[in-house]
Records
---
Amino acid sequence: MTTRQRIQDRQQRLATHLCVGLDPDPALMPPALEIEDFCVAVMEATAPFACAFKPNVAFFEACGWQGWKALEVVCQAARGLDVPLILDAKRGDIGSTARRYAEAILGRLGADALTVSPYLGADAVTPFLEYNKDALSYVLCATSNPSGIEFQGSSDEGEVSESRSSDRLSARAEDAPSAGPLYLRVARMAAGLSRSFGNVGLVVGATRPEAMAAVRNAAPGLAWLVPGVGAQGGDLAAVAQQGPGDVVFNVSRGILYARTDGEFAAAAAAAAKGWRDAFNDRR
Amino acid sequence: MTTRQRIQDRQQRLATHLCVGLDPDPALMPPALEIEDFCVAVMEATAPFACAFKPNVAFFEACGWQGWKALEVVCQAARGLDVPLILDAKRGDIGSTARRYAEAILGRLGADALTVSPYLGADAVTPFLEYNKDALSYVLCATSNPSGIEFQGSSDEGEVSESRSSDRLSARAEDAPSAGPLYLRVARMAAGLSRSFGNVGLVVGATRPEAMAAVRNAAPGLAWLVPGVGAQGGDLAAVAQQGPGDVVFNVSRGILYARTDGEFAAAAAAAAKGWRDAFNDRR
């Protein structure tokens, strides 16, 4: 089974589109706990409500080589729980170097999926697609952070800030493949790679509801990973209604740090269940 | 001293603008050598000809946590040799996560500089600038890989493929700060951050001589890191003549793998000396 099929299978069996983000920060965690023990406890508690887990590499690298070793433990635990693991790495480098990142993330760590940056063009994405045909590479498209629009939204049409412009642009997209804001050109690049490789997805922020219809038109059928729900204030209803049928939405801090005492795992499970239901209620 | 001052000081004392790239690939290295031992031997041999070293994180991560531990050894060796260390990480994530990457790279590893991706806008760059005012963050601008131009060159003016368009665009840049190809808008963003923080540089590929004049006009006074010389066929004369006075050009494979037997370190030193001289001859 491909990663996408595994995610879909879990979405159907457990009726959940929630991805639990693993951003272990010692400053926020219960004291005297190793980051891998914290993550594994959260994973075990939230697995029944999660279609995927998403560790963000930054939080592991910040702990040095011990952090990287902890990340290996987390990846292994996901395999033990049979939950697809998306490594949030946002890597992007030239071809020969991208191959080494693919080896690190899809090979050594054995992740099922990862996030990649499109700034260097298709060269920087293709090595991940070639490395493992079953894995899934989510290309950063319209990101959830406030300054994401800065370059992603820029085009000869100016910034896209309301759904009317979005509709207009999505109509244009079919006529003029090189036109429109950067995030739509990235979406079309990803769609092209998907036609060749079949294992490409997109990162579309929940804080960017105005972009969603246009992205779906520009790259029909691609899987989405949606950050920005929860602490970042994204629009869960827009994700549920405008995302593709197998959309995956991520919540990190709202689950990990629901409580920061000895009850953190039970609180994380309750928060995960709440997010699962909140999404399902909005479908 | 800031990282930029340390690089300039070394450029003047040793008359070299060469940065030695450290991309240790076990498939290309002399057999039965650990990657950290290989890198340290190359660093010791080439230090007299180098104004900086640049390990690319991908090659270390591909070796798992042992690779990250090797990277810590390499960073420590650079400090021992008192050679500025630029970590080629191309990181780019939202603010709170970027702070963890800053902790990983400028904190834990103690790198003097790093490369960052601008796809997520200023949010993703600023945490590195704030973390250490003396460190240097090189923002990816016009990268050296063939598909770099795919998005970086796109604008309402179309792709920039000859110096005439470049001159025209650089003239426009002063009139209309949001116009021109993406790499010029990135250069202007970096210039703006540099006015606030003073510790921003740019990555400009040696394979993109047509972009150089426009980038310099858009971001006057910023430091440059120039990859793409050597295996990628970049234009060394253009770098020497069009880069800023303290430009740093990087060569990796042409030095690391000059010989792949027991004489690799001496061969690396000879190759480094050759590249140093080749650049100086073209100034």
---
Amino acid sequence: MNSLPKKVITFGEVMMRLSPPGYEKFAQANSLELVYGGGEANVAISCAYLGMKAAHVTRFPDNALGKAATQFLRKHWLSTEHVIYGDTMIGKYFLEKGAVHRSSEVIYEREGSSFSLIKPEMIDWEDVLKDADWFHWTGITPAISEGAAQCCLDAIKVAKKRGVRVSGDINSRDNMWKYGKTMQEVMPELVQDCDIVITSSRGIREMFGLGQSSDKFRVAAKSLMDAFPKIEKVVGKTRKSVSASHQQIQGKMWNGSEYIKTDTLNITPVIDRVGTGDAFAAGLIYGLLHYKSDMEALNFASAACALKHTVLGDVNLVSLKNVTSLTQGDTSGAIKR
Amino acid sequence: MNSLPKKVITFGEVMMRLSPPGYEKFAQANSLELVYGGGEANVAISCAYLGMKAAHVTRFPDNALGKAATQFLRKHWLSTEHVIYGDTMIGKYFLEKGAVHRSSEVIYEREGSSFSLIKPEMIDWEDVLKDADWFHWTGITPAISEGAAQCCLDAIKVAKKRGVRVSGDINSRDNMWKYGKTMQEVMPELVQDCDIVITSSRGIREMFGLGQSSDKFRVAAKSLMDAFPKIEKVVGKTRKSVSASHQQIQGKMWNGSEYIKTDTLNITPVIDRVGTGDAFAAGLIYGLLHYKSDMEALNFASAACALKHTVLGDVNLVSLKNVTSLTQGDTSGAIKR
Amino acid sequence: MNSLPKKVITFGEVMMRLSPPGYEKFAQANSLELVYGGGEANVAISCAYLGMKAAHVTRFPDNALGKAATQFLRKHWLSTEHVIYGDTMIGKYFLEKGAVHRSSEVIYEREGSSFSLIKPEMIDWEDVLKDADWFHWTGITPAISEGAAQCCLDAIKVAKKRGVRVSGDINSRDNMWKYGKTMQEVMPELVQDCDIVITSSRGIREMFGLGQSSDKFRVAAKSLMDAFPKIEKVVGKTRKSVSASHQQIQGKMWNGSEYIKTDTLNITPVIDRVGTGDAFAAGLIYGLLHYKSDMEALNFASAACALKHTVLGDVNLVSLKNVTSLTQGDTSGAIKR
Amino acid sequence: MNSLPKKVITFGEVMMRLSPPGYEKFAQANSLELVYGGGEANVAISCAYLGMKAAHVTRFPDNALGKAATQFLRKHWLSTEHVIYGDTMIGKYFLEKGAVHRSSEVIYEREGSSFSLIKPEMIDWEDVLKDADWFHWTGITPAISEGAAQCCLDAIKVAKKRGVRVSGDINSRDNMWKYGKTMQEVMPELVQDCDIVITSSRGIREMFGLGQSSDKFRVAAKSLMDAFPKIEKVVGKTRKSVSASHQQIQGKMWNGSEYIKTDTLNITPVIDRVGTGDAFAAGLIYGLLHYKSDMEALNFASAACALKHTVLGDVNLVSLKNVTSLTQGDTSGAIKR
Amino acid sequence: MNSLPKKVITFGEVMMRLSPPGYEKFAQANSLELVYGGGEANVAISCAYLGMKAAHVTRFPDNALGKAATQFLRKHWLSTEHVIYGDTMIGKYFLEKGAVHRSSEVIYEREGSSFSLIKPEMIDWEDVLKDADWFHWTGITPAISEGAAQCCLDAIKVAKKRGVRVSGDINSRDNMWKYGKTMQEVMPELVQDCDIVITSSRGIREMFGLGQSSDKFRVAAKSLMDAFPKIEKVVGKTRKSVSASHQQIQGKMWNGSEYIKTDTLNITPVIDRVGTGDAFAAGLIYGLLHYKSDMEALNFASAACALKHTVLGDVNLVSLKNVTSLTQGDTSGAIKR
Amino acid sequence: MNSLPKKVITFGEVMMRLSPPGYEKFAQANSLELVYGGGEANVAISCAYLGMKAAHVTRFPDNALGKAATQFLRKHWLSTEHVIYGDTMIGKYFLEKGAVHRSSEVIYEREGSSFSLIKPEMIDWEDVLKDADWFHWTGITPAISEGAAQCCLDAIKVAKKRGVRVSGDINSRDNMWKYGKTMQEVMPELVQDCDIVITSSRGIREMFGLGQSSDKFRVAAKSLMDAFPKIEKVVGKTRKSVSASHQQIQGKMWNGSEYIKTDTLNITPVIDRVGTGDAFAAGLIYGLLHYKSDMEALNFASAACALKHTVLGDVNLVSLKNVTSLTQGDTSGAIKR
């Protein structure tokens, strides 16, 4: 491992996130807090805070709101030279934060967004990936539109060709696929060139019809690697939701030869639950690039995920030191002066 | 049970609630958050969010503050055609929210309020109750003034006559009765025509001198029903205050033939403790009107009560789906997308 | 004990405390919440809220910010007639509040502050202490500058001479001493005239080279009292940081004849961790002045400390009634109406 | 004129209005203030504050945001029994408030909104208009979609048939018509059954090709009434924008026999410019229903318009007394105690 | 004039002032900004900011809100040792800030307040006034209750006896007198021992039936001094309210030998109109105590009054330097670095 | 002029700007709004919003506050690759915003800041300026420290050598120079290699002892160009401060052959006065790089300056279109939809 910072490229929609302040419900809100987020950009920003170079590729409307979204990415250290502009609507989601037995509620407004209207010819992946070490995508993107799915596939192919490592956080849900194709049709081609796949046993079963004989992650992961032999590691996490305010997290991985699991981290009270999976993915990328053992990498991913539960917004703003302190077992949260 | 939405009528004072933001103490506040609340209107609004029709009867000052209070009720789906206006002061309470071992503190300013000056002739209960299914009152109202007590009694009598079911959440405290009558004098006449009484063993003992032989709710409830034979069910709840931030709730009922109790619900951290009893009452009304068994109704009431602890303000803004999801055992608070 | 309120004098730097709202990180803040705090003034204010008279001696810049800091002290009931003004910078600290596994982070900016430039001739301690019952200082002050250390020593000597009781919360850290002297050089002279010392076994070991044979507080305290025979009581507390959001507190004291400990108080969730040690010191001063037994005083100190965790800002704003209610075992935080 | 309050019905899209606080630009906003507004609902609410009964007909998404929008209308005294729900997106506009030479900027997101997908069979206008005195529409609605245009035409025809007076604020812009029809095709049929038309000489020229010989409002208005003989009055206003912070307003009317103008009202500084035209329309409706002379009605409309410039949000919340005080010449804004 | 700071004593009710943020109307407010104010305390605080010693005498409820009000006075440099506590309600006023043609609206809630229940025996005026240079009262206080009027009269008599100069800002309105006495009965006795009276020609006419022959201030002032020969100066100001956002101020005085007027100061835009008369009174007191000529004193009063229009809240927080800079003709408001 | 965006480099301290919200005074603030600013970075950001490439060179502490300051620059489109980190304090200024006759007040805390401790060897100007078109500095920087002055001189020399155009906004004040050198000693060497100098007749007189015979800008400018013959244009502006809320601006230039002036722009009310001179400088840079005539460039500078008065914070966020619209005479501020 050389000493230059690694460079991560991500691709996907970035949405305006609008939330009532604190624990207000939609019916009570007279203002909405405004940040931006999206599964893949969340990963890129998290990587940047850990010290890596990171750029995100996306498409925004060509207006003041699209500019403001780009400024959010720049502020959080991303390179935005590959952001493109066109059409008129930015994707949005409205988030009402829950507590204890009251669930958070999310309302999406993504149809017809500038990102959903993206076309493959708009991005020159050879240029984008020319000095990258890693490319990361998620299962949300191919569900958005045919154009988005094709862009994602192009990126993976170029990355593979150039020797850029590829990770996919591939969980998706049938009801997200509205443009005429199903996830069962689209995902196999995307997954086959991935080095690292983050998913669950249910995801493997639903998307690929694999691992049906058992609920166990280890079994499903093995069957996925049998079907797609280029995959090197299948990674997941077990989340127990004691309540909206109390979560428990454990990382797990099948790397083709052994099945490893982290200790469970207990998070109470939760400050912001959104983006914790993306923090896990970013931690995994960092870990695999910087640690020698899969166990260390997985511990790093779990600690990053746990810490994101304490950060407001979609993105994990904690530093490398925050994460390593937790991986070394310091759960005390004692004041740093 | 027919399919038209049921209509609930409530009567009582609505106060301006002024609270320092978050966990600020009175000595720190430079602004006060403003909502409105009152035991009975809280019940009506909760019923409205559960899908019932609901109207609240009250009296406000004839000024911009009285109008704003009415607008709060309208916003939260109440019919306000029976709100009357006069005199010059709106009742108020100041709430400093506590945490852990620090108690919340409440300062009331209700003396001389427009509501306390209400007179029986100001309300035409025949008109108010003409298409109602349920009338609900609380033990706070008769403590406010002779006029308020008389209005309450009139309402109960008209309701009984018209076949409208009557529930009373009758807990009261001696020190609230300042106009010359005691709760021991006034409450019996109000309670005798109720179908459902929500109270505690202590309330039964202090108000009616009943159930003195035992601390048990079941015993006290039985003695109350013996003394007031029109009462069909006596309902209560056990609250354990582990700390201001951690509460435990269990519903209980004596329905004349059996004593039933719900499981205990564990709420931590508490977002807003005020109005949780009113949420219980509203849940009970909904439950008794929509479920076949008392156990289902009581479970619904307890779940509604538990959920209110997570909602800011006096009133329970959760939906029917929120409550039924919890009654079906889902305590995970997992995100709804 | 006579019935006039006791008067407490404290001396030390008061800093502007600037914190991102709620759980925002520095990278997210678009405004900073502004209060003022400092270990010794926190003690004085806490004493004032408990009903004692209290004055704080400090030095601020002679500008609008120095005036505003003084106004903060006045608002919180302190006498500020001995505040002096000069030079141009107010000490500051920036506080990012953590949660669960994420630590709070503090950035100090105290170098060159008006307080650090204080000179002994600026304060007439005979006048300041003329009607005082108690003088309190901390180990932070002598670390700031030679002038501050000398002022502190002068105060202790005058207090001793006048029969004013003296307490020192003496914990300090090597890295705070930047002006050429070490804590090992300076602290002994300051400690020798103290009646009450608040410290830890580690503090005793590092500052005085005492108690090295054992980690036990009792052993270290005894060795300290052997070395400085005017000390009457050595007091400490055990804090267990389960997480940034969950703390456990227990008071302990060696009074020359017996070693006493309070029950452990469990605080979850923590609202504001800063200043809890100062609340303990203030509680101890109140307790020793108003209770007959050390055990009662120590219980009072622990309860005050626990309650501070629920109050925003540096200073403990709870009332005497709040504390005594907790010392009497009421941990329920039930609403006070 | 009888003494019962008049009832006004309006129809049109209600949008979520999201604005950076105060004078922040989009690039600075970390939260957005949330209110709701739309040209026609603004008129209805304004009428309600003036003491009339008012109901608004619109269509919202069937989710928590559609409910919240309805609650906004209810809070501001509208009857919402004719609000219908379906589809998934609420129309939006983002407003950045300008000052002096800096223009306010508005970004609309209305394509595909629940309102734009409205169909004529969704509304029973006979029922909606059964006890109405007045129906008001604007030129924005027929520009949104074929369905919206058809609903609007249906409403006007039913209103005419039932003797309900009809006003249309018909100004529109070519670039708003995107669904295949032009305003020149659609507007004549809508205008022909109106009693009152609010427009400008430019609007008359662009929409109907009338009044081209002169820029004068009087000439254009006369030609419009010649072409559409059922129109009784053509009303407009002259606005001089000295700067974004300083506006001047004058009402004008051709009523078939005389051309009247109000005095010019000078507004500086402007608090919120949006919705001032709607306040004018509402004032005109009130004036024509409650005053004997057109001059009085026009003065009332101008005063209402001027006052709206001082109210935050889309809707004019001033009372009848506020307006009449200004029509009587009191421009002092002296405190009312 | 010696060099010790002068000491001013004031007496009157201090109210909680609750205002919607910025230009929100009552119907829009979800929080209320909280400060405290009252005509006489406003004068005292203003004097303190100008460098004088000042103490305010008032009565608050004996609860956390009364304490918080006292803390407000302390923060703003007042001595509060003569504040007394009792009963349960703090006087309040709700302020909706207007703009341009929209008037500010004020709703008072003072009936039954702790101050209104004050009794003469509660205050030892000999003690209060023992080292005072000036006593100031206003015409609001005797209107509140018989007890308040009597306290005010006692204070004036003791002040006169001790040689403390007395000023009264005596404007009052008939509708404020509700306890059985009229201002015509009460005011003469209060005024007769004043050295300085601040009033208007209308006030003189309505309260004393004097100066009826002319609207001119000079004439009315002269007749007042004829009737009450101990008065040395009668002072007033001309305010022109161009709009709620634009005010013009001119001071005027009859000192028994000459009639003097200041230049007119033009204030646009107004930030907060409330308390500007009190700032004038405070400026007058300062001016008369520190300047040789009445003209200088009157200029100082007018400048202080003008500056108050730019300060939020009831009280004038500007410094001596701010005022003298304006009296020296610098109206530029140029940045001070 | 080619079509690639021009690149501007600036160098100087960036301070944390802390201001009470709105018109609050320091004595009222409970929070401080946080942005960042500095004369030179303000110019760079303004250039970036106008469409140019811009990078700022500065030094921040190596902590979370230094990172946050960098993030502010990145968010506003600057390249921050030449920002360096070290030492521990960020420069600060506290800004209390005035209104009408009340001046804004600024308190600086810059002594000992990380920027003031900068050393020439920390910056490789050849690298920084390698693809630059313009370098801009101000007279504040050489006043800060010897190191800062030397860095500035190095930059100018390298720029001159590489053919990068250099502008200096050279106004300074004697009392800013505290490190042992005077502005009279230091400025000549810095100015002699500038192409464009922004200053005033007073600045020229005080710094260089030139133009003493006349107050006229034209005369002083000519004498400056005589003394420093490499200067091509001397530019200034006339500001009339009618009040803190009302400013008038006029640009002026002597270009060696003619003296030109713009029309006066009238700004009322002012939203934020700070940074308006920097907006003028940025406008001038843009104008000279993009327009053929000095008159057009000067008009552009004045319009940019005027618009900044309406933008909160230090930096001018308006777009090219905003400025050109004003230069074309549209002062209406009409809404852009």
---
Amino acid sequence: MREPDAFRLSRRQLLASSALASLGVVGALEVGSPSPAGAAVGTGGNGVVDFYGTHQAGIVTAAQDHLVFATFDVASRSRSALSTTLDAWSQAAARMASGEQIPGDASPAYPPADTGEALDAGPGRLSVTFGVGPTLFSRPAVSGTAAPVSLADLPAFDGDQLDPTRSGGDVCIQACADDAQVAFHAVHNLARLGQGVLALRALQVGFGRTSSTTTAQETKRNLLGFKDGTDNLLAGDTAEIAQFVWVDDEREPHWMVGGTYLVARRIRARLELWAATPLGGQEAAVGRFKRSGAPLGGRHEHDPVDLSATGAHGLPLIPDGAHIRVASPLANAGQRLLRRGYGFADGVDPVSGELDAGLFFICFQKDPALQFTAIQRRLATNDALHGYLVHTSSGVYACPRGLSPGEGWGQVVLG
Amino acid sequence: MREPDAFRLSRRQLLASSALASLGVVGALEVGSPSPAGAAVGTGGNGVVDFYGTHQAGIVTAAQDHLVFATFDVASRSRSALSTTLDAWSQAAARMASGEQIPGDASPAYPPADTGEALDAGPGRLSVTFGVGPTLFSRPAVSGTAAPVSLADLPAFDGDQLDPTRSGGDVCIQACADDAQVAFHAVHNLARLGQGVLALRALQVGFGRTSSTTTAQETKRNLLGFKDGTDNLLAGDTAEIAQFVWVDDEREPHWMVGGTYLVARRIRARLELWAATPLGGQEAAVGRFKRSGAPLGGRHEHDPVDLSATGAHGLPLIPDGAHIRVASPLANAGQRLLRRGYGFADGVDPVSGELDAGLFFICFQKDPALQFTAIQRRLATNDALHGYLVHTSSGVYACPRGLSPGEGWGQVVLG
């Protein structure tokens, strides 16, 4: 006996989402009710993040609670195969963001079109963000396509211990959702759609979002126990987002105008060493109080950071090497980043016996050389936190502008 | 300037929890409102799971959404050091389950007593479950203490590809919570308290709970896309829980009466092979319809499984090798398990290039030899799913009875 309604839930879910939207519920969630820490209200009703738009979702979208970040390498020499696959990816991403399944024949004689593990989970505020790495443009399948102007491998930084298999990649997918399984499902299905054309290179699960991206979200703590991202750029900072995030350079390929650059760094934290550091030392390294997140010398998290304030003996309250001083726009020609970081815990380091855990750092910017690279150069040299951190992966990717319905990433990037 | 209220939130959080309890809110959540998929209602108000009781928490407790499972080896020859550390662990676990911090000096001159990453997260329905492995009893620090009667290494099963570093361990900690960071925080702080005495051996993050443990929880899907645990033992099946889960054998050490045995298996799923299998083949391998979870021949998930039903040509509707037939109590002398499984995704297998993802399987039982081992022997030989699964870790642990306030795991197990 076959099930009469096999694989039809997707439409019901879509209708449910639409119904929520018509009630104004989805919009409210999307703008970012104070980070719902995975707050499903009822079954699977986490809301829908629009896939289509001027910019890609997952950048200024209120940061979801879970991340699956994956990279892929082109495994085909065929331009049309790659283009078709990337178009299929964007269509699939749009469907999954709506809580729909990958469509296909539901006959028992064929493999299911969708792997199915998110079938009852709802849209989960899924966003799927796509980027292309520098190596893509040396692939035969991409021959003749101009690379984005600011897309170049990051330089080596002092202290880097990069795992090449975790780094780089011809393309990346950042899947964020309030349900970890929804984020995994998205990457799983894109990997499957890419078989033979885009080979999975690396995959990283992240939990416990740190940086907020809207004022409605409270600041969360990273695995060092500190509030992280207090001074992040926020979706509502329209002028700053235009200034620091969205590409508007006419020398860029047309598909990068409205796009941005994503930098990803897997940053292992030496948690045992950190935990053995006195509270005062931790706070001096960060430049903030651990409990409140207030800048040293302040009382409340969002008190302005006064880098010139001095205390006893005329010493600066925020020490010279404090992270927030070295990373400050004031120390970096005014440059800022839009951050979207997640914690990770991948087990035990076989050599040291220490936790292999830390922060999977993602940031978005208009120009990686002027923004991430310039800031990270200073951090790698001067930041008191640097001795507690080991960067174990690195990647930079150009994220195209957002798509309109009917457009696909293959068509837009490969023409 | 010091913060006047540094590290005092813990008490406020405790008061908040008590306030919720007095409103009857905590109880309602704990019995298991339909799995809240991490449903924080407001900030950090996920409820408290009682740490103290006849049995340990985290066994029949309504399955939380996230898992961190860790194993440790004894690194000291001192019985008193081990006993003191285990007592400190249970006290810390009780505090963290209440949403409190590890207590200690909040002076800037000392390392913080708590690592702090869950400071604002609330209790998150955290449960911390403790078990001891067979190897513990050959450690000098444990000399003279009798091992539980049914605690013995699991035999090798056909197809096992066990990673020894992920397997075994002198003790285990299962931390479950509706907030992944709360679960990580618990293991992180226990690891820190154990330094020099209990060395971290392995750590596994799991997301996307599969098996429900209460009737109020809907069945979730595993990464194969199937509802998992439809026929699980449930907290409300009091007679079956007494029959299959809680140890009541008078030959056992007194601390095992009211305890249980935990088996953990990291089961990698060959997701690429599975995704290439026709829907009918997947359903035949499981014995259930993918969409509804109904047994083949049935219409609804909870329809009774009729192993004798036949279809065309007199063939069984549930094939000979179907997972639910081979794992059925009818095929296993009536034996059953209490399951608590989670999905995992640890990246890409460096050899095959395939996803290193699957199910971190945990089950509880009165007697591993009669229950998990007997059933797994049949599954490893006859289960049609077996060809899609690779067991990459294995562990068996005796979980003591629950503690009363004032008791500790060291005192109870080591005397």
